[in-house]
Amino acid sequence: MVGPTLPLARYGLARTLYPVYRERLGVPLWWWLAAPATAALLAAEVYLGAPGYATILPYVVLVPAVVGVLWWAGRVRVAVTADELQVDDARLPLRYVGAVTPLSALQTRDLLGPGAEPYAFVVQRPWVGTAVRVDLDDPDDPTPYWVVSSRRATELAAAIDAARVGSGR
């Protein structure tokens, strides 16, 4: 190993820190164009010719607020390391992972609707149609499975399976 992984490898941390798969569930690009434009239009309606500094106040407040909401909505990251699946702040050790199934948009809708299990762990973004179902093999955990949105569901499922095989599970 070279570079920054050398000291980490000495302590056995290099395998767990570097993801083999990474994805950010950001909002679609057109939202970044449409939402601030809509906020600017709304700001123009709000000020309606007010004199002085009140003219720019709606723009200064609304446009950054909308940009902040878009950033916050798309902040979720999905990663697979050699030892765990990371979804936002949640961590699932791969030793507890059972079957991994990539889901189409229709399958995802069914699994989150009529086929939903109340104890399932779900990280779903409405602008991402496909997802991955990760069944759990942990007798101490009442959670039957995780459902995680992913634009590249097949790649995510393959990465989880590959990391599981690599970790000896």
Q: What count of domains describes the coordinates?
A: 2
Q: Nearest-angstrom radius of gyration?
A: 21 Å
User: What is the CATH architecture annotation of the largest domain?
Assistant: Roll
Unreliable residue runs: 1-14
Cα separation of the termini: 24 Å
Mean pLDDT value: 86
Number of strands: 8
How are strands sequenced across the largest beta sheet?
Answer: 1-2-3-4
Overall morphology: elongated
Number of helices: 6
Q: Which CATH class of the largest domain applies here?
A: Mainly Beta
Structural class: alpha+beta
Find the CATH topology of the largest domain. PH-domain like
Order of helices and strands: HHEHHEEEEHEEEH
Helix content: 40-55%
Name the assembly state: single chain
Largest sheet: 4 strands, antiparallel
Give the DSSP E fraction (strand runs of 2 or more residues): 15-25%
Protein name: DUF3093 domain-containing protein
InterPro entries: DUF3093
Keywords: Membrane, Transmembrane, Transmembrane helix
Transmembrane segments: 29-49, 56-74
